[in-house]
Fold this sequence. Notes:
Blueprint: E1 22-24, E2 34-40, E3 50-51, E4 56-62, E5 64-69, E6 72-77, E7 81-84, E8 90-94, E9 100-106, E10 114-115
Amino acid sequence: xxxxxxxxxxxxxxxxxxxxxxxxxxxxxxxxxxxxxxxxxxxxxxxxxxxxxxxxxxxxxxxxxxxxxxxxxxxxxxxxxxxxxxxxxxxxxxxxxxxxxxxxxxxxxxxxxxxxx
Length: 117
């Protein structure tokens, strides 16, 4: 069976009309990739340490972030991409100044997360 193109309206994934923040699971489209859009204006704020049983790809769209991936610390800026391997604990924070905005691609049809903090 061939998959067809589909459209997901902003109201179906965004948590607010004026901030790039929300998510959708690939299962909506029969795809093996899910996406989180993350935005924060708070410096030193971000997701707590967690891991997934699949790879995750972080695209820094705006700002600066400090990623902790396993025992590595990576400072990334707008336009850079960070790869997080499956089953490796990770987190990131906004280094500021200003807004941090990321697009996080989860290589899975449905989100699975184990919180470690």
